Amino acid sequence: MKETESIDEYILNHIDAESEYLKALYRDTHVKLLRPRMASGHLQGRMLKMFVEMIRPRRILEIGTYSGYSALCLAEGCLRVECCTRSR
Questions:
Q1: 85 or 70, which is more confident
Q2: Backbone φ, ψ for residue 81 (5° rounding)
Q3: How many CB atoms lie under 10 A from the CB of residue 16?
Q4: Domain range for residue 33?
Q5: CATH code, 44
Q6: Helix (H, G, I), strand (E, B) or coil at 1
Q7: pTM above 0.90, yes or no
Q8: Which InterPro entries match (predicted)?
Q9: DSSP characters for 18-40?
Q10: What's the rounded Cα separation, in Å, for the pair 21 and 49?
Q11: Could you tell me the CA-to-CA distances from 54 to 18, 49, 50, 51, 83 in Å, in that order?
Q12: Rounded Cα–Cα distance for residues 27 and 52 (Å)
């Protein structure tokens, strides 16, 4: 096992479980969208939530929402999240 894998495993064992709606969104992103690796995953999402809870911003502006996974994670820790996207 690589060192980064053991660090990831440790972190995943000590953070909140992924909610059902985030699991469903992550799965749908991988099934329906062209570049699913652009979506934040469980680990990144929990880190975003943790940062928001520590900093406690009143508002967050996310530019480039993609499937909305990270926006939902940010919203778990903040009262107001606004997303700005551009479709082609």
A1: 70
A2: -125, 130
A3: 11
A4: 3-84
A5: 3.40.50.150
A6: coil
A7: no
A8: SAM-dependent_MTases_sf (IPR029063), SAM_O-MeTrfase (IPR002935)
A9: PPHHHHHHHHHHHHHSS-GGGS-
A10: 15
A11: 20, 9, 6, 5, 21
A12: 24
Question: With 80 as the cut, is the pLDDT of residue 86 above it?
Answer: no
Looking at the predicted structure, is the pLDDT value of residue 73 above 80? Answer: yes
Gap between the Cα atoms of 47 and 60, Å rounded: 15
Please give the average per-residue pLDDT across 3-7, as a whole number: 81
Exposed (0-12), middle (13-18) or buried (19+): which is 62, by Cβ within 10 Å?
middle
14 close to 41: Cβ distance less than 8 angstroms: no
pLDDT number for residue 55: 93
What angle do helix axes 3-13 and 42-55 make, rounded to 10 degrees?
Answer: 60
* 10-64 pLDDT tens trace: 888 888 888 899 999 888 888 887 787 878 888 888 888 989 999 999 888 888 7
Q: What is the dihedral of CA 39, 25, 8, 73, to 10 degrees?
A: 80
